[in-house]
Design a protein that fits this description.
By secondary structure, this protein is mainly alpha-helical. The chain has helices at 21-32, 36-43, 46-49, 69-76, 80-93, 120-124, 185-193, 204-210, 214-221, 237-245, 269-277, 289-321, 328-335, 345-358, 387-399, 408-440, and strands at residues 167-169, 172-173, 223-224, 254-258, 456-459, 469-473. It has 16 helices and six strands. A hairpin with a 2-residue loop joins strand 1 (167-169) and strand 2 (172-173). The radius of gyration is 28 Å and the shape is globular. The structure holds zinc ion (3 copies). The site of one zinc ion has 7 residues, from loops.
Length: 490
């Protein structure tokens, strides 16, 4: 039996604009001296509230599926579940999600943080915002302070959850660190009663995000980025999305190219030749459709492999002529390496990179007449570390009737730009880690890099007369700290 309403201390005006359900419940816990488990027992849906064991997933604050909307409304004066749904919808529902489905689960986790991120100044007032959980924002929109995710004293992290294992009591870390500066009962009630107008004023980019036009929203739907992109590593992600949404082109550090509108109708000489060969007038008019399709796929695969090799050759040449310009003799030394002696980090990164993206059996084969290992499968060959390209291929293959009849010009246009960015980033990763691999004396075949993916946004749709767009951002690379053991020889 649930206790009558007036047992609880609560006032609807304690809930501030954009406040997250997390801090609303923390306030409720303080004011009523209850624990997370009490909240589930009191406000849970029937299937959950009486369970003997309440699991961590029952404390979820994104979907809030364990909580009974009506019971909450009766006490809090507001339906927190619906309010949360509406707030999150405004924030993330417009972002691209189709290409995340089946690849990242749940798709929301691409945009929402699972750990609690917070602004120290906000927490002092017992306030936490859903904006703090939004991965495209890295600073508090109200104080412009960098958001943090661990205790300044003990370094503990907290889950964004109704249950706070790492909190001793609301707003107090298990190490004793007090986040909320209001601790006397009378004072915190007073403070929460204040209107606190600053929570209504949003910075311009966030305001723009919440008030996008229909045209901007429709552009967002057509965007593609690597599903595994970690927005935590890209400090300007919200502005980046806005830039693409507005097709703005005068932002420093932003690069942008677009194809011609007719790209999807361009047919190469090869495609025309093939179409004729298998047409009614051609040599193979009596073959059945299955074999013709298979033949078309074989040709497509070959063409894409040639294209892939061309892109690698181009990026390799670029790297050799820029970052490696001073290390030509180091490359020579490494290719003839007999297991002893110093190794240049730049040469190592280049050779290791080429070996992994192109599947060479041994590093001495790179740029040395060696033949890469080929996959013997009816799929496209991509760098073995670029799994996302297989996902992209699957999605694209599922969208159209016959991949062999789709526009190769358009596919190559997009694929080549994606490959360029990926290959450069992958080289960067090797370069950053070359020193440690050398000192450990290993050349891993498929190393796990923490941040492997570049940030880019492609814009495309199925419309036959629409151009393709590709946007990417300058990545500040710093290589200076890498010493070359042969630098005195030059
Ligand atoms: Zn703040
Ligand atoms: Zn602590
Ligand atoms: Zn060198």
């Amino acid at each position: 039996m649930s206790p009558p309403k007036d047992v609880y201390t609560w006032r609807a005006n304690w809930i501030k604009p954009y406040e997250s359900p997390w801090s609303i419940f923390e306030k409720f816990k303080i004011a009523n001296e209850v624990l997370d488990l009490d909240i589930i027992r009191k406000f849970g849906i029937d299937e959950v509230k009486n369970l003997r064991v309440i699991r961590p997933s029952h404390y979820d604050l994104v979907k809030m599926f364990s909580l009974n909307e009506q019971l909450i409304k009766d006490v809090f004066g507001i339906d927190l579940v619906q309010r949360n749904r509406k707030n999150l919808d405004e924030l993330i529902r417009l972002l691209p999600q189709d290409h995340l489905l089946g690849v990242v689960s749940p798709w929301e986790s691409v945009y929402l943080r699972e750990k609690l991120y917070f602004c120290v100044q906000c927490l002092e007032q017992g306030y936490h915002s859903i904006f703090h959980q939004f991965k495209l924002l890295h600073h508090c929109p109200f104080h412009n302070k960098k958001l943090i995710q661990c205790c300044p004293e003990c370094g503990s992290e907290y889950d964004y959850s109704l249950s706070n294992k790492m909190f001793d009591s609301p707003f107090i870390c298990s190490c004793g660190h007090e986040y909320c500066q209001i601790n006397q009962d009378q004072l915190f009630y007073d403070s929460w009663n204040q209107p606190q107008e600053h929570y209504n004023t949003l910075p311009p980019e966030l305001l723009q995000w919440l008030t996008l036009t229909n045209h901007q929203k429709s552009r967002l739907k057509k965007m593609y980025f690597i599903p595994q992109t970690d927005f935590e590593k890209h400090p300007n992600s919200l502005i980046n999305f806005l830039t693409v949404t507005n097709k703005a082109n005068n932002i420093p550090g932003h690069n942008f190219v677009e194809s011609s509108k007719s790209i999807k109708t361009i047919r190469s000489f090869e495609e025309k030749k093939f179409a004729f060969k298998y047409s009614k007038k051609g040599d193979f008019s009596n073959l059945n459709e299955f074999y013709i399709k298979k033949a078309r796929f074989d040709i497509l695969q070959k063409e894409f492999y040639q294209n892939y090799k061309r892109i690698i050759a181009g990026v390799s040449k670029h790297i050799r002529q820029t970052i490696l310009a001073e290390h030509k003799s180091c490359l020579y030394e490494l290719k003839n390496f007999k297991g002893r002696g110093p190794i240049c980090s730049y040469a190592y990164a280049y050779i290791a990179w080429r070996r992994t993206i192109q599947n060479f059996d041994h590093f001495s084969l790179v740029d040395n007449m060696g033949r890469p290992k080929r996959l013997n499968k009816p799929i496209f060959e991509f760098p073995s570390s670029a799994y996302f390209l297989y996902d992209l291929y699957d999605q694209w293959n599922n969208q159209i009737d016959d991949i062999t009849l789709s526009s190769r010009a358009a596919t190559k246009w997009l694929l080549n730009r994606i490959l360029d960015q990926f290959l450069l980033k992958w080289f960067d990763n090797w370069l950053q880690h070359s020193k440690e691999f050398i000192s450990e004396g290993i050349m891993p075949a498929v190393p796990q890099f923490e941040d492997k993916y570049p940030l880019f946004i492609a814009v495309f749709s199925n419309e036959s007369n629409e151009e393709l767009e590709f946007h990417w951002w300058d990545d500040k690379r710093e290589y200076n700290e890498l010493a070359c053991p042969f630098s005195n020889n030059k």
